[in-house]
Specification:
Layout: E1 2-5, H1 31-46, H2 49-56, H3 64-70, E2 78-79, H4 80-83, H5 87-92, H6 99-108, E3 109-113, E4 117-119, E5 124-125, H7 145-161, E6 166-168, H8 172-175, E7 188-197, E8 200-202, H9 205-222, H10 229-238, E9 242-245, E10 253-259
Parallel strand pairs: 1-3, 1-6, 6-7, 7-10
Antiparallel strand pairs: 2-5, 3-4, 7-8, 9-10
Length: 262
């Protein structure tokens, strides 16, 4: 099983640690593509900070985020699961998980990253600010981050997935980095969280992110390795969630998790 997560916009900048070493990251096939993004991002942020802020969609009051990017190569690094913060990662809380769950996370969880393409929880990275829908002058092609990763992520994700089930929890922006080919559809489960209140259902960002974090934590603690969307739904029901299974499509099978409270 491979669980794909989105990154968080909010990140905890490490205060100490070794600088970035791309050679130590998993999925070394992505190293050249990672170098291209880093070069373009650092070059942009070493220039006029106001231009960089406008290009990256950073508020003028947060130019420190531009400086964060400019220092990407020298900045301290920490495990990715400690750098990414926000609602999903607070709910996942791998730091407090059992040792068995943390071991499973190493091989079963991957995070989409606009700078690094895909990272594992144990990969050491610095904090950065680069949205998945950004365009970087100097990046090959049209400069779009998502388009860049669409060209490079396929082999890395396929290798990480192997013959297992893909549990895709990415948001739309990061789903655009790599889309599972049709031949993988029977092994792809996407998860949508619906908040039900007064008989009405809707997607609410906070419920969506927090519930996804809890689902991943529970699956890692449980340890089962479902091989199909239907088996995943059964496992999630056993763990206490209300799950509705959609019809299989060429893009995979959608599982709706219905929650009434966070």
């Amino acid at each position: 099983m491979l669980i794909l997560l989105p990154p968080s916009e909010g990140k905890t900048a490490p205060r100490r640690g070794k600088p970035l070493d791309l050679a130590t990251l998993t999925s070394p096939v992505l190293t050249p593509a990672r170098e291209q993004v880093i070069a373009a991002l650092v070059e942009l942020c070493e220039g006029d900070p106001m231009v960089a802020a406008k290009t990256l969609g950073v508020p003028k009051t947060q130019l420190d985020l531009v400086q964060l990017n400019a220092a990407l190569r020298e900045a301290p690094t920490a495990r990715a699961d400690r750098v990414y913060s926000g609602v999903l990662y607070e709910a996942l809380d791998l730091a407090e998980a059992s040792s068995a769950a943390r071991r499973r996370a190493t091989s079963r969880v991957a995070v989409m990253s606009s700078v690094f393409g895909m990272v594992r929880p144990t990969d050491r990275i610095p904090a950065y600010r680069l949205s998945g829908d950004a365009r970087l002058p100097g990046l090959p092609g049209v400069g779009g981050v998502a388009a860049h990763w669409r060209e490079h992520l396929g082999p890395a994700v396929s290798d990480a997935l192997g013959g297992g089930l893909l549990v895709d929890l990415r948001s739309g922006t990061y789903a655009a980095f790599w889309r599972p080919p049709a031949e993988l559809a029977r092994r792809v489960a996407t998860v949508r969280v619906l908040h039900e209140s007064d008989g009405k259902r809707q997607v609410v960002s906070h419920f969506n992110k927090a519930t996804k974090g809890r689902i991943v934590r529970a699956l890692l603690e449980d340890g089962r390795d479902p091989r199909s969307p239907a088996r995943l739904a059964e496992t999630m029901r056993d763990l206490g969630w209300v799950v509705e299974v959609g019809e299989p499509t060429p893009k995979g099978t959608q599982l709706d998790v219905v929650v009434s409270e966070i």
